UniProtKB/TrEMBL annotation:
Organism (species): Halogeometricum limi
PANTHER family, sorted: PROGRAMMED CELL DEATH PROTEIN 5
GO MF annotations, alphabetized: DNA binding
Keyword Hydrolase part of the UniProt annotation: no
Keyword field: DNA-binding
Stored InterPro entries: DNA_bind_arc, PDCD5-like, PDCD5-like_sf
A GO term from the CC aspect: cytosol
Protein name (database record): DNA-binding protein SAMN04488124_1810
Pfam family, one: dsDNA_bind
Biased composition (Basic and acidic residues): 1-19
Family classification: Belongs to the PDCD5 family.
Keyword DNA-binding: yes
Region spans: Disordered: 1-48
């Protein structure tokens, strides 16, 4: 993953943002602000790790499809991302996931439709 100029630039921006949050927490001096800044930094770091894993294991087409789903159904997309990260961390993803595989995965993880049948007697 290293060597890509975009990845290096993103990592540098993340480090600068974390430093800014830490400086802001220290400048305000309160324990509460320090905890909030630490939680914010931890949340951003977790998101960065999740994005890095998704970038590593998804093709461009699969990422675009996931982004499209995220625009319309952010909660569902977050669940899918968590599932993908869990699969990647457990070593169950052998190769990169392409767009067709992403379609299948989205179909499998889609919540049951809330439709109902009306029967006449």
């Amino acid at each position: 993953m290293s060597g890509n100029p975009d990845d290096e630039r993103l990592e540098k921006l993340r480090q600068e943002k974390m430093q800014e949050l830490q400086n802001r927490a220290e400048g305000q001096g309160g324990q509460q602000q320090g905890n909030e800044a630490a939680q914010e930094a931890a949340r951003e770091q977790a998101e960065a790790q999740q994005d890095a894993l998704l970038k590593q294991y998804l093709t461009d087409g699969a990422r675009q499809r996931l982004n499209a789903v995220e625009m319309s159904k952010p909660d569902f997309a977050e669940k899918v991302k968590q599932q993908l990260v869990a699969l990647a961390q457990s070593g169950r993803i052998q190769d990169r996931i392409d767009e067709d595989q992403m379609k299948d995965l989205l179909r499998e993880l889609r919540p049951d439709s809330k439709s109902f049948d009306i029967r006449r007697r």
